[in-house]
Each structure stands twice: as C-alpha cells, then as structure tokens.
Amino acid sequence: MDEFFVLLVSTLDATIRVATPLVLASLAGLYAERSGVIDIGLEGKMLASAFAAASAAYVMNSAWMGLLGGIGISVVLALVHGFACITHRGNQVVSGVAINILVAGLTVTLGIAWFSRGGQTPALTNDARFSPLIWPGAEALTGVPVIGALYSEIISGHNLLVYVAYLAVPLTWWVVYRTRFGLRLRAVGENPSAVDTAGISVTALRYQAMMCCGLLCGIAGTYLSTAQNAAFVKNMTAGQGFIALAAMIFGKWRPVPAMLACLLFGFLDAVANRIQGVKMPVVGEIPVQLIQALPYILTVILLAGFIGKAVAPKASGIPYVKER
Amino acid sequence: MKQILLAASAAIILSAASASAADVKPAVVFDMGGKFDKSFNEGVYNGVEKFKAETGISYREFEVTNETQREQALRKMAQRGADPVVGVGFAQGPAMEKVAKEFPDTRFTIIDMVVDLPNVQSVVFKEQEGSFLVGALAAAASQSGKVGFVGGMDIPLIRRFACGYEQGAKHAGASTEVIQNMTGTTPAAWNDPSKGGELAKSQFDRGVDVVYAAAGGTGIGVYQAAKDSGKLAIGVDSNQNYLHPGTMLTSMLKRVDVAAYNAFKGAQDGTWKPGIQVLGLAEGGIDWALDEHNKGLITPEMQAMVDKVKADIIAGTITVHDYMSDNSCSY
Lengths: 324, 331
Description:
The structure holds 2 protein chains of 2 kinds. By secondary structure, chain A is mostly helical. Chain A has a single domain, classed as ABC transporter involved in vitamin B12 uptake, BtuC (Orthogonal Bundle), CATH 1.10.3470. Chain A is about 70% helix and about 0% strand. In chain A, strands 1-2 form a two-stranded antiparallel ribbon. Chain B is of the alpha/beta class. In chain B, about 45% of the residues lie in helices and about 20% in strands. Chain B is built from 11 helices and 12 strands. The longest helix of chain B has 21 residues, at about 1-20. The chains are: A mainly alpha, B alpha/beta. The interface between A and B is large, with 37 and 37 residues.
C-alpha cells in the first residue's frame, strides 16, 4: 500500500510536469480558434520559442532573457500567421503548416550555424534555467503522512512556469467569459459580421487573439528548453503542439475542460513511462508498442464515446470579408 | 647495361609506388551536426586530422546540413577524383549505396553502417561489448542495486546496447536489477529529451541510481534529469563526460576516430579492403571513457574491475551475447 502511494504521488507529480506545455499550448490554441483563426502552427511556435529561449538564455546566461526571447519569436510567428490569414485571407491550415515546416528547418540550420552542435544548443547552467520553487513549509511537512507527501511533492517543488501555466487556466476562463474582450472574442469567432456591425474591428480583435496565442506558445516553448530540459534539441516538441490541439477540441474550446484533457494525456504518459517493462498481474509484461499507443487509443475511445459532439466556433477557419 | 636497366626500372617502379601513395586524395563527408558536434562527427574529424598531421596529406571535406545533400556531396567527391571517400553515420547508407554503384573504381568507407558493394568498406562496432563494460561499472557504482537503461527507438540495434548492458550489470553483481525503457517506436524517439528526462525520473522513482542512455538527442534529457536528481548517468557513442562533470559516471565510446584514421591510412599504404569490418574491444574500436570529468567517480577498485572485464572479453573468457545474432537477449 505504502509503495503504491509513493508510486501514485510520483506519477501525479510527473503528470503535472508533462501536462504543463500542453496546457499552455491548448490555451494558446483556444484564443486563436475562439477568434475564428485555426492554428495548426502551435507546434512550430513552441519549437521556435524553445530554440530562441535556449539560445537567449545561453548567450545572456539568464532564464528571464530566455523567456523574453521565446515569447518574442512566438508572437512574431503568430503575427505572421495573422498577416497571412487575417489581412490576406489566406488558407489558415496551409499557413500553419508552413510555419511548422519553416521552423523545423530553420531552428536546426541556425543552431548549426551558431553553436556547431548538430542543431542542439549548449547545455544551460542552473542560473540560466527556471529552477524548482520550494514552497514554505514543504520541508517541514514531508514527514506528515499523505498530506505531507501531496503538498511537498505535487504542489511544491515545480518551477515558476508550471504555476504560470495552471494560473493561466482560471485567468483565461475569466478573460473569455467575464470581460468585454472575451465577449467580443467569442462573438468574432461565431459571427464576425455582427461584431463588425457593432462597429468593432474584426481584424484588430483577431490580431489581439493571435498575440495572446503567441504569448502562451512562447511560454510553452520556453518551458520545454529552459525548465523541463536544459538545452534545445531539434524537433524537441515531438508532436506536443498537435496533442495540445487535440486536447483543446477535447475540451470543446473551453479552458478548464481543455486543461483536464491535457492532464489526462499527461497522466497516461506518466503511467506509460512507469509500467513499461513491469510485470503486471494476470497479463504479464505489456509490449512497449501497446503502452505507447495507450494515450492515443484512449483518446479515440473517449472522443468517440464519452465526450459527445465537439462543435467548433462557427466562423473558425473562415476569413472575414467585409461586405461593401 | 643490364644493371643500368635494372636500376632504371627499379627507379620507375619506385617512383610509381611513391606517386600512387601521394595520389591518395582522401575525402570525408560529415553528417548532419557538422565536424564540431562534440560527438560522432567530431570523432571522425579528430581521426582524419591525425592522419593529416602524420602524413601531410590534406583531405577534402563536406559538412552535410540537410538530408538531400548527402548523395550530392558523396557524388561530388567521387567526381572530383577523391579516393577513398569516407561517409559518417548510418544515415548516409542509402546515398552511399547509390553513389558507390556509379563510381565502381572509387573506394568508399562507411562508418556505423553496412553497405554491401565490392568497392565499399563498412565499419561497424560491437556495441554490446562496450555496453557490457559500462553495465559492470554501473552495477559497481550503484548503491541501490538497481540500474536503468533508456533506449531511443525500439530497434534491434538499441536492444543490442540494452542486452550488453544488462549482461555487464549482472556480471558485476548477480542480484543487480536492470530496468529498461524505450522512448518510442518512431524516429521521433531520437529527439525527445523531455520524454527521456521523464523516463529517467520514473526510473529514479523506482530506485534506480545509475542510468545509461543510448538514445541520441533524447539522451540529453536523461543526463540532465540525472544531474537534477543527483543520480549518475552514462553517455554513449562519444565521450559525453564533459556534459555534466560530477554526475556523468562514464561514456561508452565508439572509436570512430580510429575507424576514419584506418580508412585513410589503409588507402594510403594499400591495405584498404572492401567488406565488413567489425571493431570491438580487441581492435580498439570500443572503449569506456575516463577523463578529468569523471575520475572522481571511478574508484581504483572499479577501475581494476573494469580492466579485468575488458581483458577477459578480449581474451574470450567472457563472451558477450549479441542481441542481433538471434533477436533475443538470452545469455
């Protein structure tokens, strides 16, 4: 029982770490899609900001400079996407895919040119990373059964960006459902001509949404290369942008359900890491392939059977043409 | 008259011989990463630089920066009359197979891959022997009696590393428990440091205190996780001890510098032969790393133990099972 509890705590701890970039990226996608812009380029923006953050943090030996660099490049890419899709009414999926491909190549090429490490960036020292924050009382409580372990392992001991990610969820909820900007954001994704009729610029609103998207993707990428890891490695996002996109659809474009979907993916991943190679009762050792497919299989089952119909914002993916 | 003729012909033969030696125009095509990648390519670079310093013969080189350049680079070298042409890494296999057919008179050497053509020399390594050594070291350094392995993509080559490591760990301590994880089943598994770090942490949670990664870029995350958790990690392919001095126990070395040097040298003195060359401990193609970054972690007893294991493997008293010979790890 005791061993099981320790395992459970470490699994939940890992869940929070793994789900953090997913939460940030799915919120980023939420802002974009709520405004009516499909963003396939979450993956590319995360990758670019991971590279920029690792490079800036290494050169200036500061995690904060890394964060600034990561957010900067991500916002620029989000605006490029906006320029193509909002201003020039280009195909949103094509533009997003283009950003993904561009970034995948560019980061490696720049990495080779700048650091000569085969596309990797040099490892960061602890000064240039976001290190774990130990909450007050965590040390004292470690001895207390159950609560102590929960507090010191799961709540305390993460880095700043993890807390930022989970605080961004209620913040996003508040912004989307309780502010004037949020109301307009939702309206512009459902019925942009109504917003336009009310005298509010559709273009400006969508650009603002893209900047929110870029900001959150930038934090997600920075987390990957300067907090969870200590260097950029080519293609290090490894599909997390797309998983975040799936989580957002899973959560029906709402912040809290999207976060729960991310936590579910993170939990399945953490469990998969822990049961690989372990002899299970009855079934014996489960093959690696099956374990790694588990999150995806469950996604399909849950999507098909339990979640119900996922309805996207009505104007999502449709460029707005002002009637003349 | 006869003597003069003999002397003249001898002189001609001699000059022809020296001409052919001077005629060696070696070339090397580095793979993605470039020659200062602190890893595989840099190893090759060190080998060919050694050849250059010893013989004074310079070489042509090219650094591939994207996947489409491999074939072009190899072809261009052959067209310009370079001989031998050395290709680095398994990724150049298909390109070399194509180009070597087009230039049957040019000698090609590929490192870490087999290309079965009459003008290609393939140099591969007995990774299981090196993994055995570091497995024995891991078991000796472990306090908990549990050691871990993180592999990249789940392919027989990586199983070979894992199997050698497991044998080595059990050799040093029969009760040692080896926990193995593979990162994935697609090529993305070579570049997923986050997942590598998570796998390492999950092993640490299960009591592992030494982890060996054979996972390309994913390994970077494993070594970082070991450093962050205060555990030990073992590098692979090239000497990665410098990455985190103090928590890198050692590295399993594939001496690609030896392979590259031998290819150039062999072509120069005429001993170059096509076919497969398998380099192991006995040939000096495999080793473990001991340098200023990890000497504090290796006790004299550990060093003596590894030296004995190494001698035993070379002498044949320890046989290391090769996973790829029968696709199973039964030893």
